[in-house]
Amino acid sequence: MRYYAIIVMLLCITITHSQNCDHSLSGTVIDLHDGQILVGATLIIAGTNQAVQTDIDGRFSFSNLCNDTYSIQVSHPYCRTEGFTVKVLGKTRRSFRLEHHIEELNQITIEGKAFTSKSKTILENTLNSKDLERYSAGSLGDALNNLSGVSSLNTGNTVIKPLINGLHSSRVVIINNGVRLEDQEWGAEHAPNIDINTVGNLTLIKGAGALQYGGDAVGGVIIAEAAKVPVKDSLYGKSLMTMSNNGRGASLTSQLTKSHKNGWYAKIQGTLKRYGDFKAPNYVLSNTGFFERNLSLGIGLNRFNYGFEAYYSLFKNDIGILRASHLGGAQDQVQAIESDVPLIIDDFTYHIDAPKQNVTHHLAKIKGFRRFDNFGKLEIQYDFQRNNRFEFDIRRGDDKNKASLDLQLDTHTLLLDLDINTSSKSSFQTGLMASYQKNIANPETGVRRLIPDYDMYALGAYGIANFKLNEQWLLEVGGRFDYTHMDAFKFYRSSFWESRNYDVIFSDIVVEELDNQVLANPQLNFYNGSGTLGSTYSFGQDYQLFINYSIASRTPNPSDLFSEGLHHSASRIEIGDLRFDSEIGHKLMLSLNKRSQLFSYTINPFINVITDFIVIEPTDVRQTIRGNFQVWEYRQTNAKLIGIDVDASYSISGNFIYNGQLSLVKGYDRTRKEPLINMPPAQIKNEIVFQKNSVNNLRLSLESEYNFKQNEYPDNNFEVFIPEIGATKLVDVSTPPDAYHLLHFNSSIDFKTTKNKTLTVGLEIENLLNTSYRNYLNRFRYYADDLGRNFLINLKFNY
Amino acid sequence: MKNVKLLTRLLFVAILFTACSNDDDAPTPVNEEEVITTLTVKLIPSGGGSEISMIYRDLDGPDGPNDPVITTTSDLATGITYNGTIRVENETESPAENITEEVEEEDLEHQFFYTPGGGLSVTTTYSNFDADGNPLGTQFTLTAGAASSGTLTFTLRHEPTKPNSGLSDAGGETDISATFDVTVQ
């Protein structure tokens, strides 16, 4: 609270700036409905003689304005003329949205966004295409890592899984181009199957408020959208190439869009990435290369009253898994942890050997919409996804080149959404969802199925209403109900089936008893309710306060329910439980947001109380013919996560900008009164940016990233018998690694080759000082250091 | 408008098809081929006498909850040298699969280690070797020293560094680590 008071005081100083009249107002005029730019719109400032027209890119600019409030009239041949009130402070940017259709006049808002917001009462973090281009060679997780409150759960350097306010996997819903990604996200070592280069705008919602996408986002929602296609005759594209010395690889991506003024458009995009073994500061991380190939195609028609889109994307990736992380049991684990360097270090190679993953994800969708006068907009979408996942372990004999895991997950979804324009003060959105999912685990692997064959049927319905009470207050209320039916066929080991007492509790679901296995047919039903209630209060010059409370209910995922066996990549036995109920999260968020030219900041504290939170924890050490293994069991508990995310941006002088970020989250198991495992340690980022638009948009930045040591963690250490010393030894799998500090340098400069063509050249250095460090949230932190210095050269060509 | 109608029709056809293609066939079971359940060590006194068997049997495999059953038929006699053979099996299959053959075929990628612990006085030497002349160890000799008792651990490593000076620098992955309580009388 004291902090808040200080910031308010600081702001008071900035507001009472001198009354110079050399300020400016610039921005774009865009279509309210689809974010398309409006060319040739006329803007007139009342009481002055100033009038301008938007250019071919929809941009306008006024100069010689005072720090004052102006009334501006915006008109366009196909829109109703509207008046707006704008406060000018320094170099002000504002975008105006016009109703690009004369019959419908009921909704006009001023928003500086080309993409509509997904939740009205949760502050959204977004990355636009310019930000995203910096991560062209990386992954979705790398890009999101840049936002406060987001970290990642890594498996080596190639599998980057986003973690939002301490939660990950099935608790984070990812929406790719309007399609909910279904790609075996339950696995901690499964990265989202999405090409970062298909994304034009990335939105992060740190809560379950966006109910249109699902009611189970206990952690949050990530929404990736394609760039909007303008309704004009055009053919444009861009190519990006990134070469990096660490991994000795390159990434190449190109896209081409053809648009027509009658609304038809077509686009094609492709990406190729090839990397060999990456390097830590002092050694090669053997078998950590990857080879990614992606393609996407889209065709559509975008008219005011109706439109459709057909879209297909293919994502294919071969990922090497650090060779030294593949272990045969607790004895090997002791050796690996005790060694300062990985136990296997080979020469650099592009070859990817076992252990490795091979993932293919197909996504196809068709969507149509129709707008009805004086009623609203109806949207219907069907999508199909097929995810093939192969995981290869180090095996013996004839099985050497056979996958140990071979899963095919097919998902069909039908969505129906209706936006109703009730009045200019309120809006209502409702929809239905029906989906069918089938998982097939190939028995040819010769390894018992990790995830069983199942059919899953889901039905959902939601409604969200917004009320604009006055200029200051906006209220949002929403509810959603989901029904899930799961019909699985699972082979249990007879000894396990009996030891868990399932033979008594679940005797009615046994289909067949074999020599040493039991085939069971669990049919599970889950009824989940979720909701959101929030308010946005706008006050002062440019302050907004967001308050949101949301309830999310998550159906246990297949690994929570069915796990029963050795997880090779974790070298431990994992056991799920058929009896789990849905996990229910209550998240309360508060965000104070100030946007101004000079100083902007966001303070975002939150509390997330989760009942029946599913955690996996060590319970036992099992003696086996392969030595000792630690047994980890899933259980349900009550958890509490509290934290705060802070972002700040300060314009030091004309060319220098400071950006700062703080992320802090603490997670506790309230039943056992101990910290939760894998909670991200506190992180502070500071960045100085030098930007000079007059010198070819030159941009230089130096970023410092400080990661604290996680000081709160559960003690999961165990003892293991070591034959060489004839005694037991403590295996420390709990103690987090030390704090570390990294510096990153980034630069870019534009060259205009012809009138419409730009070449952007960038040089980036990650981990500038080649610091050796280990990250608590990297599952391979026991075995190897994280990545060393990396020089990247980026070339971007717009045409 | 025509497009929208056509699309809607297509959608419903697609849904109908997917809804009908569901079949409830029970899946086929997977019998793990690579599981090692049983290690049998046979020790035959070189000067004749009765054979000693040491059996480590984990019938539900490393993932199963049941503890392994460990049996040793008799104690070792001081001063006696034994010719040892190791047999590795998967008894989840019927008949049991002999994995020793696979280990011997892939001799370059395997090695057994014999580790006495807790004051047990025995010495071992390798009796068989891989194609490069490095130890393989499915056959060995064991000499019992002074009267003592302790543990004897048999370790099979997959893809160890060869040659090596013992378990500590062999690396690779542990396929078997079976410890027996042994007495020399």
Structure description:
The complex is a heterodimer of chains A (799) and B (185). With 799 residues, chain A is mainly beta. Chain A folds into three domains: 19-98, Carboxypeptidase-like, regulatory domain (Immunoglobulin-like, Sandwich), CATH 2.60.40.1120; 124-220, TonB-dependent receptor, plug domain (Ferric Hydroxamate Uptake Protein, Chain A, domain 1); 221-798, Beta Barrel (Maltoporin, Chain A), CATH 2.40.170. Chain A has a 22-stranded antiparallel barrel. Chain A starts with a helix and ends with a strand. Residues 5-18 and 102-113 of chain A have low confidence and may be disordered. Chain B is mainly β and 185 residues long. Chain B has one domain (33-184). Helices cover 14% and strands 39% of the residues of chain B. Chain B has helices at 2-20, 100-105, and strands at 38-45, 52-57, 69-72, 81-90, 97-98, 110-117, 122-126, 139-144, 148-158, 173-184. In chain B, strands 1, 2, 3, 4, 5, 7 and 8 form a seven-stranded antiparallel β-sheet that branches. The longest helix of chain B is centred in the N-terminal third of the chain and has 19 residues, at 2-20. Chain B is globular. The chains are: A mainly beta (799), B mainly beta (185). The interface between A and B is large, with 71 and 67 residues.
Domain count of chain B? 1
* Number of helices in the DSSP assignment of chain A: 7
The CATH first-level class of the largest domain in chain A comes to Mainly Beta
- The total count of strands of chain B amounts to 10
Secondary-structure-based class of chain A equals mainly beta
Strand count of chain A: 46
Low-confidence stretches of chain A: 5-18, 102-113
Q: CATH-wise, what's the superfamily of the largest domain in chain A?
A: TonB-dependent receptor, beta-barrel domain
Q: What is the 3D shape of chain B?
A: globular
Task: Supply the CATH architecture of the largest domain in chain A.
Answer: Beta Barrel
Total DSSP helices of chain B: 2
Which parts of chain B are unreliable, with pLDDT below 50 for 5 consecutive residues or more? Answer: 16-23
Helix content of chain B: 10-25%
What amount of the residues of chain B lies in strands? 35-45%
| Secondary-structure element series of chain B | HEEEEEHEEEEE
CA gyration radius of chain A, whole angstroms = 27 Å
- Give a short account of the largest sheet of chain A: 22 strands, antiparallel, barrel
**Overall average residue pLDDT of chain A:** 88
Most residues in contact: chain pair: A-B, 71 and 67 residues
